[in-house]
Amino acid sequence: MPKTLTGLEILLAERLDDYQGRSLGLLANQASIGPGYRHALSYLDEYLPNSVKTIFSPQHGFVGEKQDNMVESAHSQTPDGRPIYSLYGTSREPDPKTLQDLDVLLIDLPDVGARVYTFAQTMSLCLEAAIGSGLEVVVLDRPNPIGGVETEGNLLDDDCLSFVGRYPIPMRHGLTLGELAIYINSRLKNPATLTVIPCRDWTRDQYFHDSKLPWVMPSPNMPTPETAWVYPGQVLWEGANISEGRGTTRPFNLMGAPFIDPRLLTRELSQKTLPGVIFREAWFQPTFHKWEGVFCGGIDIHPIDRSFLPYLTSLTILEIILKLWPENFRLKEPPYEYEFSKRPIDLILGRRKIFDDLANGRTARDIWDTFASEQAKWRKERQAFLLY
Fold first, then answer.
1. Which residue has the higher pLDDT, 90 or 352?
2. CATH: 3.90.1150.140, 3.40.50.10470, 3.30.565.10, 3.40.50.2300. Which one for 225-370?
3. Torsions phi, psi of 304, nearest 5?
4. Is CATH 3.30.230.40 the right assignment for the domain spanning 7-221?
5. CA nearest to 84, candidates 92, 75, 93
6. Which of 116, 111, 115, 118 is nearest to 93 (CA)?
7. Which of 67, 108, 71 is nearest to 86 (CA)?
8. Are strands 83-86 and 52-57 parallel, antiparallel or unpaired?
9. Contact between residue 88 and residue 9 where contact means Cβ atoms under 8 Å apart
10. Burial category of 50 from C-beta neighbours within 10 Å (exposed 0-12, middle 13-18, buried 19 and up)
């Protein structure tokens, strides 16, 4: 099986002539690397000298230093004085003034295959900002680390639109960032000028390790490809008083709270039919974030094969917690990702009814089964945007 070549590598090998003499912007972060772990900006400066005029950064910053939601990166500059504009803050769309002298905006960002990961929202705002400006947006595609076959979950409802979901897609969408760009652009009334440079030697059934590409954390709490695998479910704890493992060495695989008894939780989970996963009783003490310095009980989630369903799994864990510890469980109050009135859990799940149904005793599996028609609709709709 050959190593996957990213869109960046294809640009450098075959497409440089398309961008000679043009003024470039670059939206990237620390994981925007090419061969030898060398950064995209370094390659562009070598092969297209004096072309990259402006740099933009997504959530967590250009070098990935910001830990949490709504921890903003300030504008800064490179050592040679080029501006780095943060696209994560009170305003998350690029100021038109920062784009007006550019011919092309290159976007080279890793994605993790989940709707709530904000890089896709940043990309969508860049596409909208480019409309009618003459600016070409070029997405240098990268593999979806959790594959391009499986999809999971309900479609996002209109009343749950936010910076963790701006379009009606499921939690696990099964697209690459380039395919998402084509999908988003197709929904714009006046589409932007968009080019996607696809990967080569990547197939939809491949997960990250199959690509033979190096993993660099796309955000501070995404240390491994396995983290990305559990993330489409485990991210829901951002909407509750349950630690999602931030402040430990296994964020999103570990979850828990001081009031959870790991033995009871794993016993209840053993009664459920959840494919492709093993739950290990776990105790941990976060060094920062929720329950900082407090001894917590919970579980360590270990996916063991590709039948694993992260969204169903975490909905089931939530069902059990609501059953066993309803007096201790609390929802996070707003704000969350710059929404100041809507419940964070609803924004994450993409539908207000899901949590309320679980709280009223409906099972996760029963709720899950109601997503079947939406999944069929999404799988049919996404066919028009598939590059692989």
1. 352
2. 3.90.1150.140
3. -120, -15
4. no
5. 75
6. 118
7. 71
8. parallel
9. no
10. exposed
CB atoms within 10 A of CB 158: 6
> What are the residues whose beta carbons fall under 8 Å from the beta carbon of 111, sequence distance 6 or more?
117, 119, 120, 142, 144, 145, 176, 177, 180, 218
Q: The tokens of 179 are what? A: 């395919």
Residues in the chain: 388
Q: Tell the residue number behind the tokens 């209840």, with chain if given.
A: 268
pLDDT band at 56 (very low <50, low <70, confident <90, very high): very high
Encoded tokens for 345: 């859990």
| Residue 284, beta-bridge partner list | 296
Give the number of other CB atoms < 10 A from CB of residue 335: 13
In single-letter form, the type of residue at position 207 comes to: Y
Q: DSSP 3-state assignment of 137?
A: strand
What pLDDT is recorded for position 257? 98
Contact 160, 153 (CB under 8 A): no
| Burial class of residue 104, CB neighbours in 10 A (0-12, 13-18, 19+) | buried
Q: Which two tokens stand for residue 46?
A: 């070598």
d(CA 24, CA 106): 7
The CA distance from 7 to 34, in Å, is: 10
Preceding amide of 198 cis, omega within 30: no
pLDDT tens-digit map of 211-226: 999 999 999 999 999 9
Per DSSP, the chain holds a count of helices (H) and strands (E) of: 13, 10
Domain ranges of the chain: 7-221, 225-370
Burial of 241 (0-12, 13-18, 19+ CB in 10 A): middle
- Evaluate the omega torsion of the peptide bond into residue 214 and state whether it is cis, within 30 degrees of 0: no
Model pTM score? 0.96
Query: Residue 72: pLDDT above 90?
Result: no
Rg (CA), the chain: 21
Of the candidates 382, 352, 388, the one whose C-alpha atom is nearest the C-alpha of residue 187 is 382
Per-residue pLDDT, 1 = 83
